[in-house]
């Protein structure tokens, strides 16, 4: 049984000084052997600093995005190759903000996932339906299509999938834990059906308005092995409380 993976998505927040202060505080809180795996995904300017501060610590570095091409004329982009060179281990692929605000297609997300593996990174693939899609009874159909598009070529390395209903992100209104569990169970069945034992090893996170007060409700679910946390990850104490909520026992599924 793998450890749960709790990842902080800072989005477009924090100066270098704020990033350093946060990371030093988190390192104090976490100690040498945290009961869960922790990943911090700062914004690009803080990545090199974070790589330096976290080096030799049990906290892994993640990136919020990465371009699939190794290098070239892609103004404003940072490649998976460059991220790997910095010591990044995880990369968020297909976050709903990238899909919705920056027009990322399923096909482009699939390229990112493949490129992440090619450079030794673990993708955190984000999937999730909008509120209209859920109300129309299409939540699974939408998520399945996102999974099929991103993973159609098979698994070529370790994978984390974050189930993030779009309407729960940044709104303070999380999914109902039972809905998150139902979705995660269907995702697991889909993964095992296609990829056998490798599908069992994929860690499924829940994301969308996770806070210290509700983290346990999600992290205790049998099919959920971690969380992707936005707003509440901006404070090291709150993020650590969420991580601790992931370390408790779970009922078997
Ligand atoms: P939130 O964001 O925790 O602020 O809802 C989650 C995410 O976007 O990954």
Provide a brief overview of the structure:
The chain is an alpha/beta fold. It has helices spanning 16-30, 47-54, 80-86, 96-101, 106-118, 131-135, 139-151, 177-195, 197-201, 215-219, 236-245, and strands spanning 5-9, 37-41, 59-63, 90-93, 122-127, 160-163, 203-207, 226-229. Strands 1-2-3-4-5-6-7-8 form an 8-stranded parallel barrel, surrounded by 5 helices.
What can you see in these coordinates?
It is a single chain. The chain has 253 residues and is α/β, with parallel strands linked by helices. It has helices spanning 16-30, 47-54, 80-86, 96-101, 106-118, 131-135, 139-151, 177-195, 197-201, 215-219, 236-245, and strands at 5-9, 37-41, 59-63, 90-93, 122-127, 160-163, 203-207, 226-229. Strands 1-2-3-4-5-6-7-8 form an eight-stranded parallel barrel, surrounded by five helices. Strand 2, helix 2 and strand 3 form a beta-alpha-beta unit. The two termini are 13 Å apart. The model has no long low-confidence stretch (mean pLDDT 96). The structure holds 2-phosphoglycolic acid (PGA). The site of 2-phosphoglycolic acid has 13 residues, from strand 8.
């Amino acid at each position: 049984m793998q450890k749960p993976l709790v990842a902080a998505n800072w989005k477009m927040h924090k100066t270098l000084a704020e990033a350093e202060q946060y990371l030093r505080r988190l390192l104090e809180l976490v100690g040498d052997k945290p009961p869960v795996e922790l990943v911090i995904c700062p914004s690009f300017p803080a990545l090199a600093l974070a790589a330096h501060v976290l080096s030799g610590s049990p906290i892994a570095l993640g990136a919020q995005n990465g371009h699939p091409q190794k290098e070239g004329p892609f103004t404003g982009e940072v490649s998976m190759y460059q991220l790997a060179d910095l010591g990044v281990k995880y990369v968020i692929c297909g976050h709903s903000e990238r899909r919705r605000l920056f027009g990322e297609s399923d096909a482009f997300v699939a390229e990112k996932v493949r490129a992440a593996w090619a450079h030794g990174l673990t993708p955190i693939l984000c999937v999730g339906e909008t509120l209209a899609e859920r109300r129309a009874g299409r939540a699974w159909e939408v998520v399945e299509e996102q999974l099929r598009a991103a993973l159609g070529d098979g698994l070529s390395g370790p994978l984390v999938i974050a189930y993030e209903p779009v309407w729960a992100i940044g709104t303070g209104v999380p999914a109902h834990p039972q809905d998150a569990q139902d979705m995660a169970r269907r995702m697991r069945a889909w993964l095992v059906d296609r990829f056998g034992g490798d599908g069992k090893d994929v860690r499924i996170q829940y994301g969308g308005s996770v806070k210290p007060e509700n983290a346990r409700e999600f992290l205790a679910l049998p099919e959920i092995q971690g969380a992707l946390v936005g707003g509440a990850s901006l404070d090291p104490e709150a993020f650590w409380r969420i991580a601790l909520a992931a370390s408790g026992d779970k009922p078997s599924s």
